[in-house]
Write a structure and sequence with these properties.
The chain folds into two domains: 140 residues, Rossmann fold (3-Layer(aba) Sandwich); 66 residues, ACT domain (Alpha-Beta Plaits), CATH 3.30.70.260. 28% of the residues lie in helices and 25% in strands. It is globular. 48% of the residues are buried. It binds ribulose-5-phosphate. Ribulose-5-phosphate (5RP) binds next to α2 and α4.
């Protein structure tokens, strides 16, 4: 099975975590695309879903999943999204697709975060994947110097603007031993809008597609 097969496996399993007659949140990325397709085809009735990107919204419309905004709802029962890396505590690096801010907002509005991924994303330590940091454009150099002083190698994601009109700096070679602390330290830098460490918003469940089949993992297990 290739990586896409494993993503699809996880995505299809995750439909079981979606309760009927509730509002849910839907992330962004190729694994989520498989989830949207699987949810649409499952016939499961949900009240609606908050999307985190135009790409996810377009696919939701294609599969007849009603879209609502965060302003329309008071509670999201579950949030389903992929990750660039996830550790055994289900803390993650996200934002490879640049939607980290919307993803963190919707995740924090949800009662349960179900992360879907193929086994290549499951790591002992976060940080091999470059950490995306969303920055206000005119603060980019200032923020980059501070990220350099923290030990990383920041690189502007050239030709990319976020949904909110900001830029992304990807921080390379930045091993993250204390995800929550590092998440907070980066967010304290003036000019940083958000960073891709999901330490506070760790997942509750990881649905992992592996060559041996799909595994459902909870924090610390
Ligand atoms: C987008 C994300 C995605 O969840 C992450 O990049 C994983 O993507 P994919 O499912 O395509 O591997 O955080 O901002």
């Amino acid at each position: 099975m290739n990586q896409n097969d494993l993503k699809r496996l996880a995505a299809e399993k995750a439909v079981e975590f979606v309760p009927e007659n509730e509002y849910i949140g839907i992330g962004t990325g190729s694994t989520v695309n498989f989830f949207i397709e699987a949810l649409g085809k499952s016939g499961k009735q949900i009240k609606g879903a908050v999307s985190t990107s135009k790409e996810s919204s377009a696919l939701m419309a294609q599969y007849g999943i009603p879209e609502v905004t965060l302003g329309d709802v008071t509670k999201l029962a579950v949030y389903v999204d992929g990750a660039d890396e996830v550790n055994h505590m289900l803390q993650m690096i996200k934002g490879g697709g640049g939607a980290l801010l919307n993803e963190k907002i919707v995740a924090s509005a949800s009662e349960k975060f179900v992360c879907i991924a193929d086994e290549s994303k499951y790591v002992a330590r976060l940080g091999k994947f470059p950490l995306p940091v969303e920055v206000i454009p005119h603060a980019r150099s200032l923020v980059s110097r501070k990220l350099l002083a923290m030990g990383g190698q920041p690189e502007l994601r050239v030709g990319f603007a976020t949904f909110n009109g900001n830029q992304i700096v990807d921080v390379h070679n930045f091993p993250i031993d204390r995800p929550v602390t590092t998440e907070d330290e980066i967010n304290k830098i003036s000019g940083v809008v958000e960073n891709g460490i999901f330490g506070h918003a760790a997942a509750h469940v990881l649905v992992l597609g592996t060559a041996e089949g799909v595994k459902v993992i909870t924090p610390g297990h």
